[in-house]
What we know:
By secondary structure, the chain is an alpha+beta fold. It has helices at residues 121-138, 176-192, 196-207, 248-269, 306-311, 320-328; strands spanning 3-6, 13-16, 54-57, 68-74, 89-91, 94-96, 102-107, 146-153, 165-171, 211-214, 218-221, 232-236, 274-279, 294-299, 314-316. α1 crosses α4 (248-269). It starts with a strand and ends with a helix.
Amino acid sequence: xxxxxxxxxxxxxxxxxxxxxxxxxxxxxxxxxxxxxxxxxxxxxxxxxxxxxxxxxxxxxxxxxxxxxxxxxxxxxxxxxxxxxxxxxxxxxxxxxxxxxxxxxxxxxxxxxxxxxxxxxxxxxxxxxxxxxxxxxxxxxxxxxxxxxxxxxxxxxxxxxxxxxxxxxxxxxxxxxxxxxxxxxxxxxxxxxxxxxxxxxxxxxxxxxxxxxxxxxxxxxxxxxxxxxxxxxxxxxxxxxxxxxxxxxxxxxxxxxxxxxxxxxxxxxxxxxxxxxxxxxxxxxxxxxxxxxxxxxxxxxxxxxxxxxxxxxxxxxxxxxxxxxxxxxxxx
Length: 332
């Protein structure tokens, strides 16, 4: 019989459709195949992107030229523009403001064919540090309230260029989904004087049925009420409300568990397209006792259709316990 499961943080309901139960081999093969051809993100093509705002380089190399390990550049086709004022205003009952923000691309490697799951783990750590460096710089701009860091890997996951990259968008408002998540965590804390994410980590570690991997600082597990098959969350074991507060050792261990999780997904699901998103506290409330930053990683295996859009429910054909078992037992 199908199960209805409730997300304990924001109260979102998910249908775990056991009758539609799917093993990894039952999903369509939409693997991330590199096609080649001209790519503006490849080494040697730096002139085709906007000037870099951050780069990790070999000694002696010049800005906006070869010799880099990682580059961050403004998006050539930004969703928001950095120049100007917000100019919040009303138009009758409607509210609007100028589309002010920052939209940047983190080019994770000079090699067109290299992926996060296959690159040296120190380079994964560099990617994680670049997120922190750009967040810390952009939050100095008082127009911005939140920075969303995300990765679209594969065409069906929304990537318009196949060269491995991630993005960040600095926003003048806190997204509604973030507000709901923070408020759900705050309600739990007001009731029990405990962080709900810390409670989740304790329970998942104790039961083990949805655990995928762990190291000294982080856990990787399938959430109790996942929206999508093989959805995976990565969380720090020690309470931390904002992503930028990590230590060098923690970023090194985050790189290890993120790459291990990606390798497990590649092995079990034949290199699937995926999205990941960093969930962190808004700037105005960066340090608190109730929210716990984390990464949500979602392979792109199914499509959101009419029922999901109309009801707000998600239908997941793979129970998280089964997904976690497949991933936990994968040889990497």
